[in-house]
């Protein structure tokens, strides 16, 4: 059931991003800002849901993989919230800054999505592969967190 909830959460976030991209070109700036602000609220709700799932997994006697997956899903949801917040602030920037900063946001989003896909694609096999996977996931999480912090510093957030 948790896996279904997490998969549904991922599908929901991806759907929101597709819908946003479709409608942004047809709306006024105020409508665009409102839409992105709604996206922030949705991302925050998803973050809370992922944290609740994490707490459930911690309380259960789940496998090490399930714990890592729940923890990482919570981090991914938190990153999605941060990225959505960056998008809100981006709407208030000059056209020149928007182009450059949007590229940085797109890279953050792509890294976060790659992490999500990697996490979902893993199948438990040997201990050696598990250790490599766990190390790779942790490195990706650390890299994304560093990139987000760098973005925040560079853009005074």
Per DSSP, what share of the residues sits in E-state strands of 2 or more residues? under 5%
Q: Give the number of domains.
A: 1
Dominant shape? elongated
Number of helices: 5
Number of DSSP-assigned strands: 0
Average of per-residue pLDDT values: 80
The major sheet is characterized as: none
Report low-confidence residues grouped into runs of 5 or more.
Answer: none
The Cα radius of gyration reads 17 Å
* Span between termini: 37 Å
Textual characterization of the structure:
87% of the residues lie in helices and 0% in strands. It has 157 residues and is mainly α. The protein has one domain. The model has no long low-confidence stretch (mean pLDDT 80).
């Amino acid at each position: 059931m948790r896996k279904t909830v997490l998969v549904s959460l991922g599908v929901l976030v991806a759907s929101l991003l597709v819908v946003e991209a479709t409608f942004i070109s047809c709306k006024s700036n105020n409508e665009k800002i409102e839409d992105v602000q709604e996206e922030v609220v949705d991302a925050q709700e998803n973050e809370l849901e992922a944290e609740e799932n994490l707490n459930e997994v911690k309380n259960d006697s789940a496998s090490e993989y399930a714990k890592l997956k729940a923890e990482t899903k919570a981090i991914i949801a938190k990153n999605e919230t941060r990225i959505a917040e960056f998008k809100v602030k981006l709407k208030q920037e000059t056209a020149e800054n928007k182009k450059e900063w949007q590229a940085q946001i797109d890279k953050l989003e792509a890294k976060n999505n790659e992490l999500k896909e990697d996490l979902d694609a893993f199948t438990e096999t040997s201990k050696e592969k598990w250790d490599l996977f766990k190390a790779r996931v942790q490195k990706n999480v650390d890299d994304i967190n560093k990139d987000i912090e760098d973005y925040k510093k560079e853009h005074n957030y």
